[in-house]
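Entry:
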Amino acid sequence: MSKSKSKSTPMTSSAAARIQSAQAAKTGGKTPKGSFAARAQKSAAKHAGKTTTKK
């Protein structure tokens, strides 16, 4: 996994939910531990409550 210093958009809850939903549809309702969907959900939770304002 690359740790670039470029500006990126933080993962949102709704984006993580879409990713997790797509993964669950492919895997019979399960989201494997450590999968991209699980990492997306973790990232969304980490960024929850933080506001992003552009100056």
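Residues 13-23+33-47 form one domain.
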